[in-house]
Design a protein that fits this description.
The protein is of the alpha+beta class. The protein has a single domain (8-111), classed as copper amine oxidase-like fold, CATH 3.30.2280. The protein has helices at 8-19, 82-89, 91-115, and strands at residues 25-28, 38-44, 50-56, 59-64. The protein has a four-stranded antiparallel beta sheet, with helices on one face. Belongs to the GSKIP family. Residues 8-107 form the GSKIP domain.
Length: 122
């Protein structure tokens, strides 16, 4: 494997860690193949919709509305990022993402305030 090549098995784990707060459930498919070139994730959105999502060099796409299935005839488009895909399939994703971003920014502000107890913000 060249240094610039992506191992999608590793990428899938990073995606799970990154977006698990914003979906109901997310796992690597145990029935579809997981290779360096392609991995399938089973995702259940906050709206309780189930999807099987393919991750490969072309991007991210829904390949089934059932776990562990790849329905070629769907012909769904690829998305460049998992976030763009989630924006399309999960209306609550944007809200969850915004809430998480606000929470993290608040944590940073609290840490900065704790480090500067004499600073009144001026």
């Amino acid at each position: 494997m060249d240094e610039e090549e992506i191992d999608f098995r590793t990428e899938a784990i990073a995606i799970i860690n990154d977006i698990s707060f914003s979906v109901e459930n997310i796992t690597v498919s145990s029935k579809l193949p997981a290779t360096q070139e392609c991995v399938y994730l089973n995702i259940q959105t906050k709206e309780k919709q189930k999807y099987c999502v393919q991750i490969c060099i072309q991007g991210f796409r829904v390949v089934s509305e059932t776990y562990d299935e790849h329905e070629e005839e769907l012909g769904n488009p690829f998305f460049e990022t998992v976030y763009a895909l989630l924006d399309t399939i999960s209306p609550q994703y944007s809200q969850m993402f915004g809430n998480e971003l606000s929470r993290k920014l608040s944590e940073i502000k609290d840490l900065q305030d704790a480090g500067n107890p004499g600073d009144s913000g001026n």
